[in-house]
Amino acid sequence: MRLPPSLILLAAAGASARASSDKPRPRGVGPEFAKFYQDTDTFTCISNPAIQIPFSAVNDDFCDCPDGSDEPGTAACAHLSRNSPLTVAERPGNDGLDLVLALPGFYCKNKGHRPSYVPFNRINDGICDYEQCCDGSDEWARVGGTKCEDRCKEIGKQWRKQEEKRQKSMTAALKKKKDLLVDAGRQQKEIENHIVLLGSEIKGAEAKVKGLESSLKTVEEQERKVVRTSGKGKGKVNALAGIAKGRVNELRDALVEVRQQRDEARSRLKELEEVLSKFKVEYNPNFNDEGVKRAVRSWEDYAARGLGEVSNSARDRDLDEIAKADDESSGVNWEHWEKEEDGCVESDLIYKIAAYLPPSLVSFLEDKILSVRSILEIGGILSKPEEDSTTESKAVTEARNALKSGEDELKDLKNKLRDQTADLEKDYGHGGIFRALKGQCISQDAGEYTYEHCFLESTKQNQRKGGGFMSMGKFVRIGSTTVEETNEAGEIISVEKVALEYERGQSCWNGPSRSTKVVLECGEENEILKTAEDEKCVYSMLVTTPAVCAGGEDDNVAPRSKDEL
Ligand code: MAN
């Protein structure tokens, strides 16, 4: 079975201890492959066990095995593919064998540093590959006099120092990642609580609106009753005129009655005063009657204060005038007020004329007037008639306004609930971690621009020497992208990375609207490492953040995001 190179590399560490006690391995063989080189007489090709060759053919600088396993220490089989097997048609001679290397490369022991594999084509090529082979063993043949000294001590020391730094940084990054997860979880909980609160606020607001609706109904009904009771006019003035007319008539009737009673009382008083003054003249003072004498004295006192009031003709004329009905006097012209319209509508005119015209002509004229009026309204020459504004009482207006603000409040709460619920549904990445970074901005100076990235919001290109900025896109989704990286063995490999995608930025002259792909890499800080314009107005940013470092997740810390559920 053929192992993929990555698995072979993983197997290397575990196999090294076990193999160390076995017999010496041929040049270039890593400890994990030592078992294939135990037989000192015959060598069996690793991936093609049917092919056996004498052991002396191992590392004889001639490629015998189709998988190159007989040449672990030379470049004789370097022409074979490392990763992708060739198709049958591509194979030289089409022999039906699988021409893929069985070994990951030439094994460098690198004592004092870490062992590593160097690709076979770099063996004895006259170049010291210190990155993979710090002990210089890849140039063992000293081709053209090349002698590579062993630098593993210093390279190893430097590497350990860097590795220690890297580990420290990774520990710090994971701590930051945990903090982000805690923060994201807290924010999500806050939204959940807010949704619950909004739910009860909405219920309260709905009840309030219902109450306000019925208040408005009641007030409107009361208003209608007043108008109905007055029964005549179409508006408030008519209603008021009806009520006032009734009241004035009541008062007038009362005045007439009271005047009648006054006149009766006045004539009786006059009669009485005449009786008493005759009595005073005719009584006999010599007749010693104490009761009569007292009555005469009282009469004299009464008469001294002046006798009963004589009629005032001027006032009586006024009262006569008031007592007359309005249509007989110069009083209020009720007919005018009762027929008064609250708003003057031009179309009234046509209805007055209409009485003298044939109905077909009336409807033709009606249509014409309406269309001319609407043209004049659209042109702003005539103002639109305000709907019932003049007929509505203050109480109705207040009740209507209260209902309107209650409805607005309810609408506002429902919008908030919709937004918060939608936010909860959004993808904020693994553990919802990007919720904690949303809106955080980082920037990088590059040439004439300062590039800006605000997590999950936007990317911008700001002119460094003043001037404005260019939107490079608004956040649309969390996606992924494949990038090529060099691994420790110096090979180029494809790695999948989280990418934040920003689209619909400012339009590019003669091109698309600007867009940016922000590729994320694990790092202690949120930092833009590089910004590039890959195509005209299509940008990419390489950004480090602790949010994408592997590990640090603790299921108790953060709630799961929607895509994990
Ligand atoms: C500006 C910048 C550039 C872009 C050009 C396109 O100068 O946004 O990045 O290439 O416009 O016209």
UniProtKB/TrEMBL annotation:
Q: Does the keyword Endoplasmic reticulum apply?
A: yes
Q: Which UniProt keywords apply?
A: Coiled coil, Disulfide bond, Endoplasmic reticulum, Signal
**Coiled-coil residue spans:** 248-282, 396-427
Carries keyword ATP-binding? no
User: Which residues are in the MRH domain?
Assistant: 439-551
Matching Pfam families? PRKCSH-like, PRKCSH_1
Which biological process terms from the Gene Ontology are attached to this UniProt entry? N-glycan processing
Q: Which GO terms describe its cellular component?
A: glucosidase II complex
**InterPro entries per the record?**
Gtb1-like, LDL_receptor-like_sf, Man6P_isomerase_rcpt-bd_dom_sf, MRH_dom, PRKCSH, PRKCSH_N
> Signal peptide position in this chain?
1-19
Recorded hits in PROSITE patterns, A to Z, give: MRH (PS51914)
Protein name (record): Glucosidase 2 subunit beta
- Native organism is Penicillium cinerascens
Q: Give the organism's phylogenetic lineage.
A: Eukaryota, Fungi, Dikarya, Ascomycota, Pezizomycotina
